[in-house]
Design brief:
It is built from 31 helices and 16 strands. The protein is α/β, with parallel strands linked by helices. A five-stranded parallel β-sheet has the order 7-6-5-8-9, with helices on both faces. A five-stranded antiparallel β-sheet has the order 15-14-13-10-16. Strand 6, helix 8 and strand 7 form a beta-alpha-beta unit. It is flat and about 110 Å long.
């Protein structure tokens, strides 16, 4: 946009440049005029339109229709108000120099000295024609009566609010103390007798603090004008309480301009990023600039050693979803990471302006509403304001971290637990000693003493018998996980599972023996059997190691099958008594030879389809160029399309029949298909036909309407080219790479193919079956079986080639239930996205083509097919195939 404006100003033929106001502050519009004066051709007048319309949120000076520019500046040949605008004038509604815009203003002060000086000199020469009105000059003389012998430091202090902070490159609002310190440093370096500070600010508190710092009887004179100022805060409507955000009179604009002109007469300028400060710097190229634009103030490290607030030894993260860790105590510093709610962070004792330093490096903001004097200006602060309705009360109030246990509290707790553990050891209570030492290790881990916690767990293992080592192994495994030693953690946790299992078996055998003895004894005495031992067994089982807690804290497939068997064992008897309980479907194994044949079929289908589509589209394009929009596809194109679709449907049906052969042999059914399979066959054929017809309609769109062609081609390239063809190519590559795990539900693996950190390498550790399970029953647990990678790849590629029947057969008979939900999700999301991103859009474009361009039978047929395909695919994808299995299909022999 800026380049276009520059080219227009330098290359166009125009008789005047019009600069209408834009809804921003006063000096944003002044800089817009400065840009026009510098860049417009010599001799071409710059016409300024500053007459308000009445609906502005920022530019609110004067009543509606008031000519503010004519009120503030003298009219001249080069620059004047836009009373009459020539017809061949060039409109420039905004600033052109990118260094005058929002956060980019921070780079203005960091330009090389020679470049900045040259820029200021050129602007000063161009805006010399911008002369203030006579009444403005008279008021300016009244407040700038200091002589040349005085040293005058101009200070422009803006009101700190969220909008002001967001526009600062440093993302902070310097405090008044920084302005005062910088002004004193400049004044102390001068030997002049008379020293003055001219303060221009819209902040009420800034005037009060400067009056305290520079009293009337001091060596430095403080000058400031009586203008409209604000105490800050937020208004009832949620808008920052700034001066220019409230209705202002023309006198307020006069005061702002006079302050800027007075600052330009100073020898030094202390400021932040603002339009007024840049205008002052342009007016006086000889002025020395001191912008407080650093990310952190001078001397912050010394201040951090002696923080004003209490810095606790540790904090708990309470803000959701996370709190960022940054390189320094500012939101503008480098982002190092983030901590999630519930995590404990440990501090060094250093703190600065609401931030605390973490052990190991990094800073975190404690209160999002005040960090760096930037209320709701940082990312964390904005998140607090936006998420107040969904976050906790602390987070909504701005609290990101809350103090956790102090170091001395941890020390006291550790001392108490260790003393209790020692007392338990002395009296021989080994189980109590083991439980207490586990708590000691846990507290040490919470304190951040991970290595000490691991040593405590290792010491426990050295003193307890192997049959009671499960808890100590669990404790050490969790510590090793926190230390990043995944191999050691896996070893400890798997051993803990094994020890717990052996303990369960031993208890079961002892309990069974006691129950048998009790039965014989009571039978001998003629008494009924008591359930006391059953109750004892139940209480013992409750005291055993909580494996579900272990699995939730350590995500690994090692425990998955074991937990599923534990859960099934508790309900086996109830399921056996329930005659109506459904059985899990059989899952067949796709042999490697069968997979290779299916892969060849899919690759040939892919190449044949896209080759035919390309040929037919190009051949029909040549036909349309000859005969116009009434042309129908040539005979060879029609035959190629029919042959392709028919061959695909036949081969898909044949492959599906071959794949259902193990099912027919297993349960004796002659027809393993259902009516739902026929619908899948039609849905897949309709999708392939619809995509082929969409490609054939593109030449007609190009000939009939450029706009319709642009919309249709871009939609086809986006919905089909990217999300179908590109994904098909990627899946095709994965079919030939055994280590590639990319699928539609794992888009992060599109380029890298395999996530090495997503699962542990090495041979999986299988959980031992519980005592009640016979070996021949272990094949029934298909929920926890390893995922058949090749079958999933074949199913995914079949789905994206719109071979819906083949995908359904593979999903139903060759994938375990644990994988079918993902397949159905992928089918649903792709079907609905193609419906709304491709079919609905193409239907609309074809309808407009028929109404506005030409009634072509191909377009009409394609429209009907697209409508039917959209409805059919959504209906098919929105119904789970698993829900359609009847009891007869699940139990055909009953």
């Amino acid at each position: 946009m800026q380049v276009k404006k520059l080219l227009a100003l330098q290359g166009s033929a125009y008789s005047a440049v019009l600069t209408p106001y834009h809804d921003n502050g006063l000096f944003a519009n002044v800089l817009q005029v400065c840009d026009a004066l510098l860049l417009a051709k010599p001799g071409v007048p710059v016409l300024v339109d500053w007459k308000r319309k009445g609906s502005e949120g920022h530019f609110q000076y004067g009543p509606e229709g008031f000519d503010l520019f004519g009120h503030l500046f003298e009219a001249g040949e080069r620059c004047r108000s836009a009373i009459e605008v020539p017809s061949e004038s060039l409109s420039m509604p905004g600033r052109i120099n990118c260094l005058f815009m929002n956060m980019l203003r921070g780079y203005f002060w960091s330009l090389p000295d020679d470049a900045l000086k040259e820029l200021r000199v050129r602007y000063a020469a161009a805006i010399r024609v911008l002369q203030p009105a006579q009444h403005v000059q008279r008021k300016l003389q009244e407040c700038t009566s200091w002589g040349e012998e005085a040293l005058v430091v101009g200070v422009h202090k803006r009101l700190a609010c969220s909008e002001m902070v967001a526009c600062q490159l440093s993302q902070r609002a310097p405090s008044c103390a920084e302005f005062i310190a910088k002004a004193r440093k400049i004044l102390s370096a001068s030997e002049k007798q008379r020293k003055l500070i001219f303060l221009a600010t819209d902040d009420v508190k800034a005037v009060e603090e400067f009056e305290v710092a520079f009293p009337r009887d001091g060596d430095v004179e403080l000058c400031y004008r009586r203008v409209k100022r604000s105490p800050g805060g937020v208004r009832e409507d949620g808008i920052d309480n700034e001066v220019h955000r409230s209705p202002c009179a023309e006198a307020d604009a006069e005061d702002a301009l006079i302050d800027a002109l007075a600052l330009s007469r100073c020898q030094h300028l202390v400021c932040v990023d603002s339009n007024l400060a840049i205008y002052v710097a342009l007016l006086n190229p000889e002025m020395q600039l001191h912008a407080l634009s650093s990310i952190l103030p001078e001397g912050w490290e010394e201040a951090a050693e002696r923080p004003e607030e209490v810095v606790h030894a540790s904090y708990e993260v309470v803000f959701a979803p996370m709190v960022f860790v940054r390189k320094g105590p500012s939101t503008a510093t480098e982002l190092l990471g983030a901590r999630k709610p519930g995590e404990i962070v440990y501090c060094t004792g250093r703190g600065f302006d609401g931030w605390v330093e973490l052990e190991g490096g990094g800073w975190m903001l404690v209160d999002g509403a005040r960090g760096g004097k930037q209320p709701l200006g940082s990312i964390e602060g904005l998140a607090v304001a936006a998420g107040a309705t969904i976050l906790t009360r602390n987070a909504a109030a701005g609290i990101l971290l809350k103090p956790a246990f102090e170091k001395q509290d941890f020390d006291k707790a550790l001392s108490a637990w260790q003393s209790a553990a020692e007392a338990a050891r002395q009296i021989g209570a080994h189980d109590i000693w083991l439980a207490l030492m586990c708590e000691v290790s846990s507290l040490q881990q919470q304190c951040g003493k991970l290595h000490l916690s691991e040593a405590t767990a290792t010491a426990m293992l050295a003193e307890v018998p192997q049959r009671r080592a499960a808890k100590a192994l669990l404790r050490r495994g969790l510590v090793r996980e926190a230390l990043g030693d995944l191999n050691g953690a896996r070893q400890d946790l798997s051993h803990a599972v094994a020890e717990n299992f052996m303990d369960l078996q031993a208890q079961e055998k002892r309990s069974d023996g006691l129950i048998s003895d009790d039965k014989r004894r009571r039978a001998h005495h003629g008494c009924s059997f008591s359930g006391s031992f059953l109750g004892r067994r139940h209480s013992r089982s409750e005291s055993n190691l909580d494996l579900e807690d272990l699995a939730s804290r350590y995500d690994t497939q090692v425990l998955r099958e074991y937990l599923l068997e534990q859960e099934e064992g508790s309900t086996r008897q109830r399921q056996a008594e329930d005659a109506e309980q459904a059985t899990l479907p059989d899952v067949c194994d796709l042999r490697q030879r069968c997979f290779r044949r299916i892969r060849v079929l899919l690759v040939v289908n892919f190449l044949a389809y896209w080759s035919t589509l390309s040929y037919c589209g190009y051949a029909y394009y040549l036909r349309v160029e000859e005969a116009g929009t009434k042309a129908l596809p040539p005979m060879d194109v029609a035959l190629a399309c029919v042959f392709l679709l028919g061959t695909q449907a036949t081969l898909e049906l044949a492959a599906a029949v071959c794949l259902t052969q193990p099912v027919r042999q297993g349960d004796g059914r002659s027809n393993p298909f259902s009516s739902w399979d026929f619908l899948a066959w039609l849905a897949g054929a309709g999708a392939r036909c619809s995509m082929l017809l969409d490609a054939l309609c593109l030449p007609l769109m190009k000939r009939g309407s450029s706009l319709l062609f642009l919309l249709s081609a871009s939609t086809f390239a986006f919905a089909i080219g990217v999300f179908v063809f590109a994904v098909q190519l990627r899946l095709l590559f994965g079919m030939f790479c055994s280590r590639d795990h990319f699928s539609y539900d794992k888009p992060d693996l599109f380029f890298k193919g395999r996530d090495s950190s997503g699962m542990m390498e090495g041979t999986p550790i299988a959980a031992r079956p519980p005592a009640h399970r016979e070996e021949e029953d272990t094949s029934d647990l298909r929920l926890g079986r390893a995922m058949p990678v090749n079958t999933i790849k074949a199913a995914n590629f079949a789905h994206f080639n719109d071979l819906a029947l083949l995908h359904l057969v593979l999903r139903r008979h060759y994938l375990p239930i644990s994988c079918q939900e993902t397949q159905e999700f992928t089918m649903s999301i792709t079907s609905f996205s193609r419906c709304f991103c491709e079919d609905v859009v193409q239907c609309s474009l074809k309808f407009f083509f028929i109404m506005d361009c030409q009634v072509n039978l191909l377009v009409l047929f394609s429209l009907l097919v697209s409508i039917g395909q959209a409805v059919g695919s959504c209906f098919y994808a929105s119904t789970s195939a698993m829900d359609l299995r009847t009891s007869e299909e699940a139990n055909p022999n009953d």
